[in-house]
């Protein structure tokens, strides 16, 4: 969201909404890539995402410290995702003994990779090819003079189907203008 997130947060406060309505946002609105440019207007914002540079795990703390030393800034969701994806691919290449020309074997290896101790926490792929990972509920706080996304709740091992049975879920119609029916229209 970049510049738009910065403008939105300022207008949210300037318009008086912050004092009356708590802000629940997606994670990229207050991602670590824009958080350093924000001020007190971001304080208290609740967001959800599968990463926060403030995660207290030893693995994330090592990653965040190394990233900041190299890049001169705290890692964002984007940086952590690139790191995780690269490591994911490296694990799959290792599993096929470097024989990346065998496309089917490489794809099968990619599907089998399970990253257990990573900056974002454990992550694997479900049988539909989508990630199963922790989802963090975060609140923007000022810690040590800097804004951060403090994790205050974790939903572990969330799939695209959440708590629904995948087979039953896939039987439901796609969301359209007419489904689900509007009960108050």
Tell me what you see in this structure.
This protein is an alpha+beta fold and 185 residues long. It has one domain: Rossmann fold (3-Layer(aba) Sandwich). It is 36% helix and 21% strand. It has six helices and six strands. It has helices at residues 2-14, 17-20, 58-71, 77-95, 103-112, 166-171, and strands spanning 24-26, 46-49, 114-115, 123-125, 131-143, 146-158. Helix 4 packs across helix 5.
Keywords:
about 180 residues; flat; about 35% helix; alpha+beta; 6 strands; single chain
For this structure, the CATH topology is Rossmann fold
Count of distinct structural domains: 1
Low-confidence stretches: none
> How many separate helices?
6
Shape: flat
What is the residue-mean pLDDT, rounded to a whole number? Answer: 95
Distance between the termini: 33 Å
Total number of β-strand segments? Answer: 6
**Helix proportion range:** 25-40%
Instruction: Give the C-alpha Rg.
Output: 20 Å
Fold blueprint:
Blueprint: H1 2-14, H2 17-20, E1 24-26, E2 46-49, H3 58-71, H4 77-95, H5 103-112, E3 114-115, E4 123-125, E5 131-143, E6 146-158, H6 166-171
Parallel strand pairs: 1-2
Antiparallel strand pairs: 2-5, 3-4, 4-5, 5-6
Helix pairs in contact: 4-5
Provide a brief overview of the structure.
The chain has a single domain, classed as 3-Layer(aba) Sandwich (Rossmann fold), CATH 3.40.50. It is built from six helices and six strands; from the N terminus they run ααββαααββββα.
